[in-house]
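pls ignore typos typing on phone
DOR + seq
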Amino acid sequence: MKTLIKNATVVLPGETTQVDVVLERGTIADIGPAIQLAADEVIDAAGLHLLPGVVDDQVHFREPGLTHKEDLSFASRACAKGGVTTFLEMPNTIPNVTTQRLLEEKLALAATKSVVNYGFYIGATPENVQDLKTATRTPGIKIFLGSSTGDLLVDDQGALERIFAETTLPLTAHCEDELTVRRNRERLGETHDVADHSRIRNHEAAVVATRRAIDLAVRHQHRFHVLHVSTADECQLLAENHRLITGEACPHHLFFNTDDYARLGTLIQMNPSLKTADDNRAIWKALSDGRLQVIATDHAPHTLAEKQQPYPESPSGLPAVENSLALLLNEVNQGRCSLEQVVHWMCDAPARVWDLVGKGRIAKGYDADLVLVDLAKTQTIRNEQQLTKCGWSPWDGVELTGWPVRTWVMGKEVFREGEVDPTGRGHEAQFDHARGGYWATSD
Ligand code: DOR
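k done
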């Protein structure tokens, strides 16, 4: 099957220009002006923009064990709709993915269910350093330095030193300091005010843990990625990246802050917690000046009934994969950032951080993971139209301009005009860790 996409404005590495793109046998076979070719399908994409598919390196898809909230079929269809062609999923499912056997069981599940490409992290515990040392077929090791949803936690210094010293896979962490969180919770006492979530998981909790993780990475000279940065101070810590450390922002830390609890309550309860409007601005600034490299969602669905319990029974987490690209395209339309920056943060940079083979750019020989977007399309997010199993969005009622209209995964179209093809199947993402990550591959 040969597909010829004609007349789109294509975001190529280093240049955005109108060219034709040929997809064949799952890869980008050719790129050039006015390509003449007998294709099985010719798509006139005049007026639209062609981007590499989004690589979302932080999602929680809940399967196995928590499939009343989400599962790989629902979540991957939500990805296809949102222009996400590869996801990297976190290990806090039930059971936690802490061994090669459990990792491979998840890969086998995804092979039969996921309409987009997939990869799975292995989770660190204080006892499984041997499993972490020998793990394969994974982007890297996830450490919960502070506890969040589930019971994965490593905050013992000796255990952390061993993980940073003895493993070679890329490391990443949820950085909120467990002791600081506990101390804040005790000081505040019993509370049912969700705004206290940001006083319990406060600035200090995030900064202390991120500083601790960076110190470990630098001393052990170990590649490290800071997930979901929520404070201005962490952005400052990332200014000295030592060409070892990368950092990431999530849409909720860009678009929501503590002022929004009054309107949205526990729906926007997240870990790390939301911080202030000044932190929102600092995170945007850090993305623009390169202290943060990646935008990913931390898609963490819970049912509406679970979220609507009174704080603190309400769980932390919100869904985002099907709207994250549109949220950013809307910002392009508002003039806050460029389309090329969005492609860097959401496609190229995460592919490089995790050594993904063939992902993140539109270039000859790369995988044909693509999303066609209509920057002029205006649409309102509605809970009842969400494909995620939890069926709600914190952005319900928000009108955005700039939406994905077609998505291809390895050359096969999986989303078109509002419809996902549920028969589409993604492929297991391939990691070539010898590449050395983001800093080793920077332009
Ligand atoms: O709020 C969160 N929810 N943050 C996390 O890091 C985990 C996630 C979840 O799995 O629910």
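The chain has 15 helices and 18 strands. The first helix runs from residue 72 to 82. more later
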